[in-house]
Amino acid sequence: MTIADFAGSSPGFYRKTAVEQLLALAWFVEARQQRAYFDGAYIRQCFKEAGIEPPDMSVYLPRLAAKRPPQLIKEKGGYRLAGAVRRALDVRLGGDPTTSAVAKALTDLPTQIPDLAEREFLTEALNCYRVRAFRATIIMAWNLAYDHLVRWVFSDPIRIQSLNAGIASKYPKKTLVVARHEDADTLKESEFIEAARTANLLDKNTTQILKDKLGRRNMAAHPSRVTITQHQADDMITDLVANVILKLC
């Protein structure tokens, strides 16, 4: 994730004060870029990459370090966030270990898949997760994985031929031959998965993961009194990323 991506996806970032923006960028530098320290020149460049005129770092950084309690700690190598400030920003910006692991898994995907539509889905899923919209996260994660599956099948003529054989075998009453991506809409998602399994395009474990996650998507997509938790969203994303999107490439 670039600094511009981070700033654009952080709610209200461009309406925050210069101090709040500085602390948020410092958090990104530490949590996402894994830098132990930063100096005025580096944070100034971060502001520029976010599209903001940087404040005077020679004034702001020492002032934040001199506060009681301090918001920044001055070290030999530069500055770092004070512990309490870092922990608060971890919670606010999604830097707790579980959230960071899932966000990193999603953020790393664009380097492996070139499709622009999938990148859009990826960004939306990450934004939903960051603001704790877990129902939306589950729906977007499913959309991303299922779209990837369909594109993977239709990217190869032999797979298309195998899928048609699977449809004919699993659903003999359907007089259906698919030839391009749009034809997948003539099948229910569950039918597409079953036909792909029958055609040996998917193994048993991947098929079961897709069935389970489709059920969870259906549960999240309809109004109900069922509570959707962060753990469910974590599992949805990590399972689909590791066992569908990265596997089918």
Itemize the secondary structure elements and their pairings:
Layout: H1 3-9, H2 18-31, H3 40-49, H4 57-66, E1 72-75, E2 78-81, H5 83-93, H6 97-108, H7 116-130, H8 134-154, H9 157-170, H10 189-198, H11 204-221, H12 230-245
Antiparallel strand pairs: 1-2
Helix pairs in contact: 2-5, 6-7, 6-12, 7-8, 8-11, 8-12, 9-10, 10-11, 11-12
Quick structural summary:
It is built from 12 helices and 2 strands.
3D architecture notes:
The protein is mostly helical. The chain has two domains: 3-93, Arc Repressor Mutant, subunit A, CATH 1.10.10; 97-245. It is 63% helix and 3% strand. It has twelve helices and two strands; from the N terminus they run H-H-H-H-E-E-H-H-H-H-H-H-H-H. The chain has helices at 3-9, 18-31, 40-49, 57-66, 83-93, 97-108, 116-130, 134-154, 157-170, 189-198, 204-221, 230-245, and strands at residues 72-75, 78-81. The protein has a two-stranded antiparallel ribbon. Helix 6 runs antiparallel to helix 7 and helix 8 (134-154) runs parallel beside helix 12 (230-245). It starts with a helix and ends with a helix. 31% of the residues are buried. The mean pLDDT is 90.
